[in-house]
Amino acid sequence: MNERVLVVEDDRSVRETATLLLERAGLRVTAVGDGQQALEAVADHRFDLVLLDVMLPSVDGFEVCQTIRRDSQMPIVMLTARSDVADVVTGLELGADDYLTKPFQPAELLARVRAALRRPTADGSATLLQIQDLDIDAPGFRVTQSGRPVDLTAIEFRLLVELARNAERVVSREALLERVWGYDYLGDSRLVDMAVKRLRDKLGDDAREPRYITTVRGAGYRLGL
Question: Which residues of the chain have pLDDT under 50?
Fold first, then answer.
């Protein structure tokens, strides 16, 4: 592995621990201690993943996440305190791909990062898919709605492709975690639910009267009628 990871964490011991673990795994790591430094680093260098703490000096993690998402689809893994469920939801709503609670286990940190880095941004094995007025070009990583491009993150795009491949069939949250995020038991159904919510928002879909994505209570999600 030769990918570059930006670690953004104001706690020096956590920052150094994460840096050491990732470097030992063969990753190139840049570590900074506040949100402004993170934004400057992203502006000046190319990274393959950001490991981003929520509570940061100068600019908090939510604003950093939101700013990165305006211009980049690279994976963002948020670091949160174990008890801060609201932080998890907010981070995922703003476009984070995953989250990790502190204190974390080294094996779990590496598993999350490796899973995020394994996810391709496009899938060359897929064909062109069409669902109602949605045209999905999986190899080209493009989606149009009635001819207009839809700007999706890598996770949102892979989620849409997976649902489109299984159009009119219910796909469970567990299956989506495995196929879109790349793991099962390490995952959390909130990852799926928040990504579906963001995807619906971008498609102008109403969960109460769905045009595209239907929630099948207790089972999962279905794309199409």
Answer: 122-126, 185
* pLDDT value for 225: 67
pLDDT at 186: 57
Domain ranges across the chain: 4-118, 128-223
pLDDT tens digits along 162-205? 999 999 999 999 999 988 887 664 567 888 999 999 999 999 99
- For the segment(s) 4-118, the CATH number from 3.40.50.2300, 3.30.230.10, 1.10.240.10, 3.30.1700.10 is 3.40.50.2300
Q: What string of H, E and C letters represents the secondary structure of the chain?
A: CCCEEEEECCCHHHHHHHHHHHHHCCCEEEEECCHHHHHHHHHHCCCCEEEEECCCCCCCHHHHHHHHHHHCCCCEEEEEECCCHHHHHHHHHCCCCEEEEECCCHHHHHHHHHHHHHCCCCCCCCCEEEECCEEEECCCCEEEECCEECCCCHHHHHHHHHHHHCCCCEECHHHHHHHHHCCCCCCCHHHHHHHHHHHHHHHCCCCCCCCCEEEECCCEEEECC
Task: Give residue 124's pLDDT.
Answer: 44
